[in-house]
Design a protein that fits this description.
mainly alpha; 68% helix; globular
């Protein structure tokens, strides 16, 4: 949805949704800060999240190991994501894009 359409939609939403938007904003800021601290610039953060979305879109089930392996095949360093950054991305996918990310633990 285009930014203008989102802004128009936000004007008619109840206050609880606006609080949720602040929460997502905090989640995005936390993720960006975490990834910046690992040396990724803003353009790389955007590309990494886009690649994670592409990986998640390609499978029904995923875990951190699978996502990192898939990202590595796309040219990212090994284990680019840790548990925290993966959880933040899953929260963004669920809250903003309504993805249902089911994580499978493999022993």
């Amino acid at each position: 949805m285009k930014l203008r359409e989102k802004a128009k939609k936000a004007r008619v939403l109840p206050e609880y949704f606006l609080c949720e938007m602040d929460s997502i904003s905090d989640t995005c800021l936390t993720l960006s800060t975490l990834l910046y601290s690992r040396g990724l610039g803003q353009d790389k953060v955007y590309q990494l999240v886009s690649d994670v979305i592409r990986v998640v879109d390609s499978t029904c089930f995923c875990n951190l190991s699978y996502v990192n392996h898939s990202l590595e095949s796309l040219g990212w360093p090994s284990r680019i994501l840790d548990e925290t950054s993966f959880e933040l991305i899953k929260e963004i996918l669920f809250s903003v894009f309504e993805y249902q990310v089911e994580v499978v633990t493999v022993h």
